[in-house]
Hints:
It contains ten helices and seven strands. Helix content is 40%, strand content 9%. The strands form two sheets. Strands 2-1-3-4-7 form a five-stranded parallel β-sheet, sandwiched between helices. Strands 5-6 form a two-stranded antiparallel sheet. The radius of gyration is 27 Å and the shape is globular. The protein is of the alpha/beta class.
Amino acid sequence: MKRFSLVLAGFAAMALPGLASARSEPAKAQSGTIESVNKIILVGDSTTATGNGWGPMFCAHHTTHPTACLNLARNGRSSGSYRAEGLWDVALREMQVEGYGKVFVIIGFGHNDQPGKPGRSTDLAAEFPANMRRYVEDIRSAGAIPILFTPLTRRLFDGGEVVRDLDPWATTIRQIATKTGTPLIDLNEQSREIVQALGPSVQNMLAERPASPEVAAAAAIDGKTLPAETGHPASPNVPADLRIAKMNSRFDYTHLGEYGAKLFASVVAAQVIKAEPDIRPLIRP
């Protein structure tokens, strides 16, 4: 019987080479292949922010599991006021939270840096470029990876052509990206081409609120956008103590509704993997 057991053991060793070593060596704990969790932080103004920008759709539909996507864009902020109000300090702390692999910061301003906005506008020649360069430097100092984007176009038309009122700010950001070696998403140019292709009438579908009959008619007849103030205010009869910010929003040519947010979130997703190949595993185009 003893001899039979030895023969059986020998046969098992020949048939299953790993069996003998598994029995002779102490069991080893398998090293898990825990996937590193990376983070994307969005910084900008209302055209990126929750509620009326492309940022929420980007985080919800264009990031891979288990990427953390944090939208810190805020309505009405410029490259100057975002820092002055302490919002940038929050973003910097988020960049340095331990436990993440890579942290990417997608950042852009311009809409509220334009003249005529007290407490927000910045000087285009000196202040705006200095602000944007400093953001890039701060992101790198925090150990994160900066990605710049030019401002989303306004959907204003004159004579059938998109009004290019944000070109100087877009140009400045392009120059900073080149000088600092920072990846760039040219959202301004991409969005302008799309809005131009849609035309003054169809582009109204991208807005946060529906266009009024006057606005829709003017766009369809002569290819010109009327002032946004002629738009239809939402929920005008809601008591003041029950109103929330977006219940009183009006139709305009800057902010985005569901269709607009989905469209431009997909544009950002497609462009960011071209601008920064290292972010590709985090993005669903």
